[in-house]
Structure formats: C-alpha cells, structure tokens
Write a structure and sequence with these properties.
Length: 330
Amino acid sequence: MSAHVFVIGAGAWGTALGQAAAAAGNAVTIVGRDAEGVAGINRDHRLKRYLGDIALDPSIRAQTDLTGLDDANLILLAVPAQASRAMLGAIGPGVLDRKPVVLCAKGLERETNLRQSEVLAQCAPRAEPFVLSGPSFAHDVARGRPTAITLAGSKASRAESIATALASGSFRPYASGDVVGVETCGALKNVYALGAGAIEGAGLGLSARSAFLARAFAELGRLVAAVGGREATLGGLAGIGDLALSCTSGQSRNFSFGMALGRGETRDQIAASGVGLAEGVLTAPVALALARAHKVDAPLIEAVNMLVSGRARIDSIVPMLMARPLKREE
C-alpha cells in the first residue's frame, strides 16, 4: 500500500530520497527553504543546483511550508544534523505524535553530543524514531542506481514495514533493530573520511590509506561496543559499507575536504574555494568527547581533530601515529 511520504529538506540528499520514495509507489511531498529550488522541482522536475540535470519523478511535489504534514504517513527528516533541533522545534511535538520519523542526517549534535534519535526524543518524545544510514550518494540514488542501505528502529519488525514502504527495484533498505550502532557508525565515518582524504591529499599512498581504513574500522568497533551498539552493525552496510565508501571516494564531501587539508589548505581557504563545510568537521570534536567519556582509545579521531583545528599538519601527525607503541592487532 502506498503512503504519503513527507521529506523535510530539499537538498541533494532529501530530494534523492524523495525520488526513491516515489519510485516505491508513494505520494511524495518535499519541503525546502529555497523558493527557486522548489519551483524547479515542480516546474522542470529538476534540482539543478544540487542534482544537475537528473530528471525527477513528475509526481513529486515541492513546497516551502509544512502544509499537509498532519496527513503524512511517513516523515523523512533530511536537514543537516546540526539543524535538526531547530527544524523539529519549528514543527512542534504535537504534529509528530505517533508518527514514524526517519532521521536521514549523519552526525552528532555539537552542543549536546547527542545522536539524532536522542535529539528527536527531546523535541518530540512521542514520535517513532527510525534511522537511515549506509553507503549511498545522492546522485546515485536520484539516478536510480542500485543502492542498499540500513534502516533501523527500536523494533526490527516496525523497521521492516518502513523499509518495505521505501523499497524499489533500485533502492533496498535492510531493517535493523540497532538504532544506537547505526547512528554511531553514520556519524563517525564522516570523521574518518576526513583522515583518509588527508592521506590522499598529502600523497602518502594507497598502502597508508588502506592501513588507515583498517585501523579506523577497529577503532569504530571499540566505540560502537562502548555506546551499546551491536557487532553485526559494524560488519554491515551502516558500518564497513559506509566507512569504505566515504574513505575512498572523491564524491564524499568529507573525503574531499580532507584531501584539501592534506594538501596544506586551511579550513578558511577551503571554504573560500566554494567547498561546503563537511559534516565530519563539526562532528570530530564531539566524537573525541564521546570517546573520552567512554574511555575508548581513539588515536585516529584525536589525529583528525588536530588536523581540522589546525594544531598540526598531516606531515607531523603521521609520524606521531607511526611511533605509537606496537601491539597485537585486535
């Protein structure tokens, strides 16, 4: 049975998810702040600023307000992680009572160190939270290229029903009951992507980047276990799947930002070049606070923080990491 899917956030990711939801046979409404972008979706079935000339399903409707949200069967929150609380506050808790809300941003809130589902619980405690994460680029999803992701909820059976509503021939959500693990993997992979990009930008070679990816996976595993996530999540799409994609592709904004840092550019220089701020830059200090709070050894997250803050360059960070005491691989 088709649903009315309400996507809040008309950037590349939100619009791509609207495209996927429409391909699954749902009625889709996308809400965005940019009137020109909204008009382009309705008139030209394009979001040229973010998705270029990719054709969108003509049935998708876009608007700049929240009219019709009350009647939606499924809500996808696709604004940046640091904007989630403000958007949820604008919506108000009553509207979201008993409604399934799929959280599509990957990041930890800076001021509170909270995961996105925890932010939702504070802003709309009676909403039903789900988390969408996994190896996926907006352009691939919008073009209908095969994509598999994880959709987590507190009850796996409910996650299965939401996954079914969004599934199509090109978009395959796998249900999970591990909200904590999926969110943690989604947020931290952005931090590791900065480090992998820096290695690439500094020209340190594929051997170094592969070693970083392997040790990042181990470090992520320690953190996921410490916060109560499941080991199976780490080995799945939301874990190694998303980590590998983000740490190896220039399509990843975090990887590209890291490459610029590795070339010796500062954050201000990168911003002046027109590259948007990567989510991992904002998440890095929160990830470090998380690791310290749980007493988890996280040298790679510490190194990324040094790089992002400008306290050290990649050519001084790598020798520090290489000089760490030798130990067994675990």
